[in-house]
Design goal:
The chain has 708 residues and is of the alpha/beta class. It folds into four domains: 202 residues, HUPs (Rossmann fold, 3-Layer(aba) Sandwich), CATH 3.40.50.620; 122 residues, Methionyl-trna Synthetase, domain 2, CATH 2.170.220.10; 160 residues, Alpha-Beta Complex (Isoleucyl-tRNA Synthetase, domain 2); 146 residues, Orthogonal Bundle (Isoleucyl-tRNA Synthetase, Domain 1), CATH 1.10.730. Helix content is 41%, strand content 19%. It has 20 helices and 25 strands.
């Protein structure tokens, strides 16, 4: 027996050396795999944000995807796992803003090109660091094909999609209601808004012959109408009339309009209509051709149209307006009121509805193709319930605001007319005059929503339309990602993939849940409960961490993560090491290449091993990774170590040569088969052991044949 197994297993010494061996072998690249690897199996890595360290959620996707790739590689598939990194537009800029705030600087007032250059340096530095972390987690991805969302060839494809959307009349720039973050000074899509319940006051104002209820009395200066239900007998005589209402800075003449969206039972059944500052009021204004009067500016302050309140922040202005209305006898009553508000998902500040020119994609036609693909099972979800969840979301999809008022991102290739404010797609950067009115044009300064570019990731990374990889590896086999970004990302990839290529971008979608702390609480920096996966890896070994992530991790369900759980799987890695020592000692002098006649007991043991292997294979094929991991763990520890090895000791030490050889063959067969089956879950310790086994014609374990 090799003396190596007399020492305890040392993951800190082993793992970097083993990973270097794998990478230098070239087998991460499907082009270098042996001849038996023919049918393609493709996974595109969800590109982590290149703006900081990996967290345990990243460790979850790396573990699951590496498990799948190693399994398929051993089964003879031509496996491509393509890694990447996301510039992560808004999110990265927010991270960088916090960094420079600590330095006493602000992005506001900075030269945009200098800021962009600084964030690029910051991102590329993080990207390199992050790639080292992914290696440490054991990822057997093809680094020679690694992509970044700001690579020139990716940007070229993104621009081509933008132009095609324009050609197909699915793209427009128009003044519409958007979600505006006052802190970050950018619009956000509906998916980037968090809905939060809040306790406020509901103010009942005397409004000419009406009483109207509002939570935002500070916006009365932007009112353009009063809306009632056409079937409300209280107000029928006023419909179509103009009424004069007083406010603290004068009077407004407002038209009374009728619309069935007004609820007769809510409040007083009469609504003030403020189209510039309420999404529902904006729709009413569009339908009834009402003017739009903005009274709150981009900084969240009342503007010059509000007289003495100009320059006040919203909260201060509300208090002052309410006090003045009460003094004028125009406040009928005030009630407590609980309602939902939209907040920025990054800073939690209340979003201000604003009407402003933005680029929108009409995604309805794209969504319809995705709905049809799900119905035909061209795209299948694990868990299955997401087929219905995603279909319902697609059926209710609204136009997507794809423009952001930030520096960091892919610039929108367009010009804006100074006269008519028309947006003109200009991918070639050749337009100097507005084709509509002949006016002078200026360059668009907005950037794309990062999900617009990452939504094209599968076909863009593979070199659509003429790339060799696109032809060989698209559509991809599986998209594995977190359940919480299924609408942000997965559905947009489905829509864009079908739109650009005519094919689904992936056949299966596997969704994992959040990894929480040991108490089941979501990890966050503010709570101080964030777990660094690399620290866990250094402490217990990457293999132990991987098993801790997989076992108990059912699709789209949250899983708890703790040191205690991982410590148990470190013990398991040591158990596998010790089992190997016993088996190698037991087979000394035995011809490993021979197949002796087996006892009935050993024949049964080998048959049970084959059945267990088949069971685990089926589990992995059907995305039951947690069950497969449990089964190999229990087989090795409780069946192999506790029962088979213990029972074999009599035959190994005995004088019956037939029984001894049968036991030796059986022990070695179980060891080699167990190492193969365990390899996708615990690649480092299994590869290390494999290198020291005595049988001939060994290859790296990562390309050995999966046991049938």
């Amino acid at each position: 027996m090799n003396e190596k197994f007399l020492k305890p297993y040392n993951p800190l010494e082993t793992e970097p050396r083993i990973y270097k061996t794998w990478e230098e072998s070239g087998y991460f690249n499907p082009d270098n795999l042996p001849e038996r690897h023919k049918e393609s199996f493709t996974l595109i890595m969800p590109p982590p944000n290149a703006n900081g360290s990996l967290h345990v959620g990243h460790a979850a996707f790396v573990t699951i995807e590496d498990l799948l790739i190693r399994f398929k590689r051993m089964r003879g598939f031509k496996t491509l796992w393509l890694p990447g990194a996301d510039h992560a537009g808004f999110e990265t800029q927010v991270v960088y803003e916090k960094k420079i705030e600590k330095e006493g600087r602000s992005r506001f007032g900075m030269d945009p090109e200098i800021l962009r250059s600084e964030i690029m340096d910051f991102t590329l530095g993080n990207k390199k660091f992050m790639e080292g972390q992914i290696r440490q987690l054991g990822a057997s991805c093809d680094w020679s094909r690694e992509k970044f969302t700001l690579d020139p060839d990716i940007i070229k494809i993104v621009y081509a999609t933008f132009k095609q959307l324009s050609n197909d009349n699915l793209l427009y720039r128009g003044k519409r209601m958007v979600n505006w973050c006052v802190k970050h000074q950018t619009s956000l899509s509906d998916l980037e808004c968090a809905s939060v319940e809040q306790n406020d006051k509901l103010y009942y104002l005397k409004y000419g012959p009406f009483t109207v209820a509002t939570v935002r009395p500070e916006t009365i200066f932007g009112d353009v109408a009063i809306a009632v239900n056409p079937n409300d007998p209280r107000y029928k005589k006023y419909i179509g009339q103009d009424v004069v209402v007083k406010n603290p800075i004068g009077e407004l003449t407002l038209k009374v309009i009728a619309d069935e969206v007004v609820e007769i039972e809510f409040g007083t059944g009469a609504l003030k209509v403020t189209p510039a500052h309420d999404a529902n009021d904006f729709k009413l204004a569009e339908k009834n051709k009402l003017p739009i009067i903005e009274v709150i500016d981009k900084n969240g302050r009342l503007n010059e149209k509000t007289g003495k309140y100009a320059g006040m922040k919203i909260k201060e202005a509300r208090e002052k307006v309410v006090a003045d209305l009460e003094a004028m006898g125009l406040m009928e009553k005030i009630e407590d009121y609980k309602h939902s508000i939209s907040t920025c998902y990054k800073c939690n500040s209340t979003l201000e509805p604003r009407v402003m020119p933005q680029w929108f994609v009409d995604v309805k036609p794209l969504a319809q193709k995705a709905i049809e693909a799900i119905a035909k099972e061209e795209i299948k979800f694990v868990p299955e319930r997401y087929n219905k969840i995603c279909t319902q979301w697609l059926e209710n999809i609204i136009p997507w605001n794809i423009s952001r008022q930030i520096v960091w991102g892919i610039p929108i290739p367009a010009k804006i007319c100074n006269s008519c404010e028309e947006g003109i797609v200009d991918v070639e950067n050749s337009i100097t005059k507005c084709p509509k009115c002949g006016g002078e044009v200026r360059k668009e300064t907005d950037t794309f929503d990062t999900w617009f570019s990452s939504g094209q990731w599968p076909f863009a990374t593979l070199g659509y339309p003429d790339g060799k990889d696109f032809k060989a590896f698209y559509p991809t086999s599986v998209m594995e990602t977190a359940a919480d970004i299924v609408f942000f990302w997965v559905m947009r990839m489905a829509m864009f993939g079908l739109y650009r290529t005519g094919k689904v971008p992936f056949k299966d979608v596997y969704l994992h849940g959040l990894v929480n702390d040991k108490h089941g609480k979501k990890m966050s920096k503010s709570k101080g409960n964030v777990i660094n996966p690399l620290e866990i890896s250094d402490k217990f070994g990457t293999d132990a961490m991987r098993m801790g992530i997989i076992i108990g991790n059912t699709p789209a369900s949250d899983v708890s993560f703790s040191d205690d759980k991982i410590r148990g799987y470190k013990n398991f890695a040591n158990k596998v090491w010790n089992i190997t020592r016993f088996v190698l000692t037991s087979v000394e002098g035995f011809d490993i290449e021979s197949k002796p006649e087996l006892t009935d007991t050993d024949t049964t043991i080998i048959a049970e091993l084959a059945a267990t292997t088949t069971d685990i294979t089926n589990d992995i094929d059907n995305y039951r990774f947690y069950m497969a991991a449990e089964k190999i763990y229990h087989y090795i520890w409780h069946t192999f170590a506790d029962v088979i090895i213990e029972n074999s000791k009599v035959a190994i030490a005995g004088t019956d040569e037939k029984a001894k050889k049968s036991a030796q063959y059986t022990l070695y067969k179980i060891l080699t088969t167990s190492l193969k089956v365990l390899h996708p879950f615990m690649p480092f310790v299994t590869e290390e052991i494999w290198a020291y086994l005595p049988h001939k014609d060994k290859k790296l374990l990562m390309i050995e044949e999966w046991p049938n």
